[in-house]
Every structure is written in C-alpha cells, then in structure tokens.
Amino acid sequence: MFALLVMSCVGAQASHATLFDSMGGEPVLRAAVDRFADIVVADDRINFTFAEADMSKFKKLLYEQLCNLSGGPCRYTGRDMRTAHAKLGINAAEFNALAEDLYIALGKAGVPYRLQNKLMARLAPMKRDIVKPPGAPGAAFPAEPTTESQSPTPPSM
Amino acid sequence: MQMPSGWRTNHPLRRTLFIFSLAALVGVRAASASAPFENPAIPDEGKLPLTAGFTDIDGAGGAGLVPWAIITGYGTEDSYGANAHYTLVLLGDFRLRSYGIALGALDRVEASITQDQFSATGTALSGLTVEQRIYGLKVRLTGDAVYDQDSWAPQTAVGVEYKRNSGISDVPGVVDPRQLGAVSDTGSDFYLSATKVYLAQSLLLDVTLRYTNANEFGLVGFGGDLRRDRSVRFESSVAYLLSRTVAVGAEYRDKPHDLSVDDERGAWDAFVAWTASRHVSVVAAFVSAGSILSPVTHDTRDQNGAYLSLQVGF
Asked: Distance (Å) from the C-alpha of residue A58 to the closest C-alpha of chain B?
C-alpha cells in the first residue's frame, strides 16, 4: 500500500506539470494576488491588519510565495512567516478569513476549486507560524507597520 | 402505565429551540456590525464554510449517520459556536423526526441535546411512536483536520451519547422497548472518531468506532436476548469537496444485532451537504437503514428513503 502510494507520487511528479503551471502560471497567479489584495482591503474582518501595509510590496511578496509554493520558477524573498507575523497578533479567525479571501480571489482569477485546494494544502500548515498562541495580545489596530513594509526590498526578477 | 403525548412532553425543548434559533440569527447579525474578533463574548464565526461539519442523526457534529471528530459550530479555538437542527428521515414504513441544539467551545468540546420521534407509518405497527432523548458530549483529543496538511494524521475525538428511550405509545399492550426483548430503555454509546480533510485531494475521510448496544440507534432500546452488552461497531464517512460550500459523500454505519425480533443491519447513505452560509446548512441524502423489526412487521425489505436535515446557527 505504502509502496503503491510512493510510486503513484513519483509517477505523478514525473508525468504532470507543476501546480503553478496547472493553475495557469504567472498571469493567473498575478491576477489572483491582485484580486486578493482588493478583497482583503474591503474585508472588515481583517483589513485593519493591512492599514499601513505597502500593498504593492505585499502583492509582490505574496506572488513570489504562491509561485514558489506551487512549484513555479520563483524565489520567495520575504521574511519567514513566523518573523513576519510575530507582532501582528493574528488569531485563528483572522487567519481563516484571509484563507477564505484567498479562495475567493483564486476562484475569480479562474483557478478551479480542486487546484485552489491543492495550493491551500501547502499554505495551511503555516497557521502554526502565523497565528498567535492562545491568550497572546490581539491584533486590534496594530501601531507597528505591517510585515511587508518592514521587509527589505526584494531583488527584481 | 400511560405515556404522555410526545409532542406535549417536548414542548419546552421545541420552544427553547425556536427561541434559540431566533436569538442566534439576531445575535449574529448584531455581532457582525461591531469590531471584529475583539470581544470574546461575541462568537468569532471564524471557521471556513463547510469546515464546521453538519449534525448527525444523534445530534453530534458530523454528516448524516456518522459523527466526525470536528467540533460543531463556526467558533475557532478562541471562541464558540452553536446550532439548532431539524432532521426528517422518511423510510418505507417508518419516519424519524429529530431536533435539537448543539454547542461547540474552543474547538475542543461539544455538547448536544436531541429529541427523536420515531413513528411507524406502514405495516401492522402503523401508528406506533417512540420517543428518545440523546445527550451528547464530545472532546477533541489530537490533531487539526483542516490545517495539519503536512501530516497524514487525522483529528481525533472521543464522545459519549447518553440515550433515554421514553417509551412506545399508540400500540396496544406495548409501552416499553423491554417488552420487545431489550435489556434496558437507557444506554450510553462511546465512540472514537478520526477525521481528516485531505485538502490536496479535496477529500474528507472519517472513521468512527462505536461501543454500543443501542438497537436501531436506541429507538428499540438497548441490549437484547441475542447480546446483552455493548460491542464495537465500525462507521465511516467519505466526502468529496465540490466547492467551498458543497460536498457530496457516502457513509456507512454498522449496527449491532442484539434483538431476535429485529433483523438489524448496517445503514448507509449517499448525501449532498450544502453550507448556504455560516448560519444555514442543509444535508439531503438517500438513506438505507436495513430492515427494521421485520419479524414483527413481516416486511423484510430494506427501509430506504430520504434524509433531510436543516441546521441553523453560528
């Protein structure tokens, strides 16, 4: 059974395009990131965490990250998830709201639900690094500038 | 010994349920108008659509026939959620109506109360009515069914369902499941559930082991002439996630065969579950419950039919 699973995984990797390609590559993923940025800014559940964010930098880094995670030809130049979100105090509901918005954005960019799930499967474990431990101070209107504006400017691609 | 009319007995629970549903809808509307996720008293409704599950036949968070390790309601680990359900099962010769409320807290503990009314609509038993109340408690043990996508390990939970059969009415001479051979009119099921969303495959899998001596979910009492004590029974749900709000799936629930007057078999269903919003969910299924009391009814056909469940909450 296990051997069969391993074989089918190897087979799948050898014979199929990357998730990045299946989703439609750079144009689709950039469109999804643009949509996502618009949606989160309009989402009252979480938009305050983006109040002082540099959205163009945020979009660039998110694109790099999604591209990299989906097997595309990108390097993520931002900080690791734990460091980047340490001061934001993101809670589980906010993380999930973000995930929901990303689902919506991927859908609007034309990524089929089945592939949205494949991408989300690679993002989901990041909850452990992004969400604050229970009982830690909340995110309510952080005075700190958000992650992305603190990040060093990524090299141009 | 005279059994009071079922619906009259249940009026307090029905009224509570109705008021609760209204309060839930109004409360949630009010909550959503205020600042997000700041007041722990306000439910955060933080889970993704579908990931709060539905309400199973016994009132626990699950699908239709099988409980899941998922804690009911849309509250995350920081909050709480609750819902009310009404479920109608229309079989060839029988009808089950079930309604109740369930509360989930901190994505850790779930408590539920459900009232069943089971009636025979055909055969010589036509008119027979059985009432049962189920008190459920579930505790999540390990794992996260949704987020631990880098691990095969499921979310696990243990649960107990205390069931009190309040008797049979409208059949001359039969007032208690013990007259049909059941050992008791009360019983407790213990179960262990393992549930996992395999997101990359858009699949949800659940396996539940139940330690039970409930005859026909407890509707015909507990234990019997063939077996007195509980035995371990296998249950499973498989669901394919079609979209962020719709899942289709199938379930199987083995049941003990403890009574010689009931040729009891496992039940299965094929379902469509739709989360219209975080406040309203619907499950519709084709269900096959196996033959029920066939030595009494002389109807040995499988009891097949429709399962419809509405859940409102937050």
From this structure: 22
